[in-house]
Amino acid sequence: MNRLLVVDFETTGSNPRQGDQIIQIGAVAIEDGAIVDSFSSLINPEMDIPPFITQLTGITDEMVKEAPTLEEVFPRFLRMLEGRAFVAHNAYFDLQFLQEALLSQGYYTFDGYVLDTVELARLLLPMQNSYRLGELTVDLGIIHERPHQADSDAEATAKLYLHLVEVLRSLPLVTIQRLHMLVASFRSDIHVLLRHLEMEKLAALPEFEEKGTGKDEQMWDVYRQLALYKREEKLEASLKSMDRKHEVEESFEELLEETIGEQGRLLHNIPSYQRRDAQEAMMQAVFSAISEGVHLLVEAGTGTGKSLGYLLPGVIWAKQNQQQLVVSTNTIQLQEQLFHKEMAALQEALPFPVTAATLKGRGNYLCLRKFEQALEEPIEGSSQELRLVKGQMLTWLTQTKTGDVEELSLPAAGQLFWQQVKSDTGSCLNRACPWFSRCYYFQAKDRAREVDVIIVNHALLISDMEAENRILPPYEVAIIDEAHHLEEAATQHLGKHLSTTELLFLLDRAAVDCGSLLHRYVEELTLSFPETKERGEELLAEIGKEISPLREHVQKWTTYVYDWASRRAEETTDAGRETVRYRTEMFTGKSERIKRETRKIIEEMGEIAKLWDQLWRLLNKEEKPSFSLRSLRTDLHGLMQEWQQGMEGLHFFLLEQDPQYVYWMEVESRMARKQVHFSAALLQVSEALAEPFFAEKRSVILTSATLTVKNSFSYCLSRFGLDLLPEERVRTIVLPSPFHYEEQGLLLIPSDFPLPGKESEQAYLDAIVQGCLDVVLAAQGRTMLLFTSHSMLRYVYQAMKERLAHEEAPYLLHGQGIDSNNRSKLIHLFQTMERSVLFGTSSFWEGVDIPGEALSCLVIVRLPFTPPHHPVYQGRAELLKAAGKNAFMSIALPQAVIQFKQGVGRLIRHHLDRGVVVVFDTRIVESRYGRTFLQSLPPFQIESGPWPALRQQIPAFLGMLPLSDS
């Protein structure tokens, strides 16, 4: 493994057996950890290069016309490869081309060692967002000047490989040994590399070494054959916690001046900071509301600096009153940003010490005991993907301070494995666990108890409310950022959910084959208490007889329910799933079988639960089990609880429904596997929020850029249940954005576009495609297209891709759910590549921050109304109708306006930004309610008229052409 050749091929396609050819070779030789030679050449493929390959690589037919053929170049390349291991990024792509080329030239196929840097990177850099070569090189600071050109890619891959070897070399011996066991049967030869480094480390060990004095134990916390990141000593932690006792005697006004005044510490620490009137007004309003014990809704326009606007007064009040402040954001990503960016800046700027911590739901943290158990499971029979996931997590343990799953880049197999090893109450040994002092969840809870500011997400805030405040430390004041999501978060987390995938995974975990939880439990039980052996094995055999037919039964039932749902479902979700609302009364005639089979499944699960109970009782209360047995017994208890919840879930969703809920199923028609997701949501969450939450808290600050409809808070007040409180307990304030929208933004509304649903679907789609093309060409890319449905996004994407392929200058399209589901990755590609177009659905309507010229045009294809057949909307609409209210005006229109404001808010993100919004939905000017959308927007220049005239204004407004005199 000291001699390697790092290779990259550019090709005309992805399948050499169907005639695709190599058009460029890049190769870099490595010896003893250093680059010693390189080689690259264009290749004449003797065929036309497809346009999309030219677009991707920049290699044209003209460039390869005079280039040598593969036959001419190959001998030199093969001399370099001789006696070396083959290394590539996504190695099996390049290897298939190598093998096909060798055969076609009359050589033997390559039979040396193969290493894949994608696989190595996934194993050793488990916290990366992406394992694409381009993103890896950016994150690691590796120079990669010409992505998708073989010479540049090969050089970048060689440097990446050397970096990965250094990461591997830095790992503790115990981790390398465990990794070696996991990867022994991988397709590539990582195990050879690991063995080589393991021998290196063993050779470097001193002959005699006292426990605790070794280098690995000094650098890492090595315990029970696992190496963890060595966290800060408890003494440091206790010193930090003393900060909360620091008395703050200055007044709010004095501290404000000291922090943000002309001589303030914030200006000194952040030179780009500017005092803003709206931000200071927000600070005063927030401090006043908390001090006087009232709730406050703040709509703060883009550019106000609302994070600092609520954090500074909130922190000052908390320190003055020796209280904790809870701050909640909508997503975990925003939670992390708030902690690492805004809170960190404030800590530097304040004249007194402030401590902060994030806390997430328990299922976000790894249970070290469960992970230790999972590593003991037999490797044979487990998939390569699962072994890779376990390897990722072994490496991650040497890097993570938090044990938070959000840090990990897990594949699909990892998401399921996480369910097995995450922390939960049902299978926790608490203080009896040997890992207790190192437990990530309890450490996070301990930190949260000691700090001034706890940053959570809406999901945890609602969960704490539902758990009667047993999750978070007691608090009086909360600040809710992105508050327009509060009702949605409450709907989600006060609701109930079950999926057929979860059910089948539960059945897999209940298996009795060798290495399973039940099998290991019985083995350990009979080892400690031999008198239980006969009955234990009998029960295990009985469970085994029941489990297999039950799994088959559940699979058949899943297919039947899937077929029933898919025949009735319509696309209504952001994830592109199709949805059908249902009641159990609908299961009549042939569909009565759904209820009948559900009852049978619950009965069969009940029989297995009885057998488990008998197995559980084999151990008397008086007997003291070993740790290993106690650990397995705890996991079994957790599994039994989940089993019971599964039975209750089936009963709740398909047999006896609660009238307070609306029920629906979701199916994924584009997936090969037939899966059904069952959901139920409370019809009224406003009352659930009003009584236990707002009524009991001293002060809750709710803020967002979008809380009003036509400058009125009435919609949000009613949806949050704040209209049920005395008027004097609730205040509102609207703070304008400091941006000059009338100069910075232009809103174009074509008057000659077909109305959705009025003309034929094809004519409507054709008009949308042409309109989007016009905008993209006028702005030379730099455009984001926002859709309300995945199916329309896919249609427009494909149509535009075909038409733009004929343009002289290449355009790069980045489609959500097509090129990637990773929003950060798509945004990064859009920002860094010229002539880019970004296609997104609802998750792109907010939280996307792309300042500068990269985003110059925003297209809103349709007004973002919730589909009228969305189950939650339907259920709540029926409730309003029964009360004599208009559901469209009460919820559909306000929801759409808030979403529309969020979408438009993606464009102008900085006081120097300039951009054009195009709305292709003419209902905004032709319907009676359209004015509500326009009156809720910042003061853009608004133009409406025939599209051919409007589209000419785009390049002129963006400064790409001089304005005409006409």
Automatic annotation (TrEMBL):
CDD domains, A to Z: DEDDh
The protein's required cofactors: [4Fe-4S] cluster
Record carries keyword Secreted: no
Record-linked InterPro entries: ATP-dep_Helicase_C (IPR006555), DEAD/DEAH_box_helicase_dom (IPR011545), DinG (IPR006310), DinG/Rad3-like (IPR045028), DnaQ (IPR006054), Helic_SF1/SF2_ATP-bd_DinG/Rad3 (IPR014013), Helicase-like_DEXD_c2 (IPR006554), Helicase_ATP-bd (IPR014001)
Class of enzymatic activity (EC top level): hydrolase
Domain (Helicase ATP-binding) ranges: 265-535
Annotated residues for binding of ATP: A300, G301, T302, G303, T304, G305, K306, S307
Gene3D superfamilies recorded: P-loop containing nucleotide triphosphate hydrolases (3.40.50.300), Ribonuclease H-like superfamily/Ribonuclease H (3.30.420.10)
EC number of the protein: 3.1.-.-
Top-rank taxon: Bacteria
UniProt keyword list: 4Fe-4S, ATP-binding, DNA damage, DNA repair, DNA-binding, Exonuclease, Helicase, Hydrolase, Iron, Iron-sulfur, Isomerase, Metal-binding, Nuclease, Nucleotide-binding
Chain positions of motif DEAH box: 481-484
Gene Ontology MF: a single term: metal ion binding
Entry's Gene Ontology BP terms: DNA repair; DNA replication
Described function: 3'-5' exonuclease.
Family, as annotated: Belongs to the helicase family. DinG subfamily. Type 2 sub-subfamily.
Protein name as it appears in the record: 3'-5' exonuclease DinG
